[in-house]
Amino acid sequence: MSNMPVTEIEKSNYYLFAKRTMDVISSIFLLIFFSPAILIIAIAIKLDSKGPVLADTPKRVGKDGKLFKMYKFRSMVENAHEILRENPKYSNLYNAYKRGSYKLKDDPRITRVGHFIRKHSLDEIPQALNILKGEMSLVGPRAYYPDELRDQQKKYPHTIDSVKIVLSVKPGVTGFWQVSGRSEINFDKRIEMDASYVKKRSLLYDLWIIAKTPLAMVTGRGAL
Fold first, then answer.
1. Which of 61, 80, 181, 201 could be cross-linked to 221 through a Cys-Cys bond (beta carbons 3.0 to 4.6 Å apart)?
2. How far apart are CA 95 and CA 115, in angstroms?
C-alpha cells in the first residue's frame, strides 16, 4: 500500500508549520490532562477482559500511503481482528462488516468497558502518541485499513480521485465527518467529506473542528 499515488493540495508553509506546532502542543497537553483517565481506563480494561491494554490491530494507511501502527485502547476481545476474518463462526458478521463500509452496528467482540470508551471516543486518547511521532495530526481524514481502502474502491470506483487527495495528508484523531454526527455514512460519502476537508483545510477550519469535538465525544455522536 506504500507509495500509492497521491494528489497534493498545496498549502502555505505557514499553515503546515502552525499545524505541526499545534499538534505537538495539543498532544502533550492531552497526555497530561488525560493522565488520570489513562490510568483508570488501563486498569478497567485489564480487570474486564483478558489481553493487552492497547489494541493489537493491523496497521493503518497514513500520509503518502505509508503504513503505521495506530495506538488505541483495546475495546474488543483479544485477537478480535483475526477472529472476525478467520473464524468460520463469524463469517456472516465479516460479510456484514464489509457490506456496512467496515463498520458493525452491534459487534459481539466489543467488551463492556469497550462499549463505554468507544461511545465517548476515549479509546482514541493514545493516538496523542501518534501525533507526537508525526504519523497523525489532531485534525485530518480518517485513518483507513489497507483492505478497507482496497475493497471499498472496488465497490465505489468513483472514489479513487478522492482517496488520492485524502492520502496526501496525515490522518487525524478527529475530523469533519466525525463532528458532523454522520459516522454511520458509507465509505463513498465519508471519503468525499475527507477529501473536502483536505481541500478546504485552514487553521480556522481546524480550530472549528477541534471546538466541536468535545460535544461529539460527550454525546457519543460521531463515535468511531
1. 181
2. 22
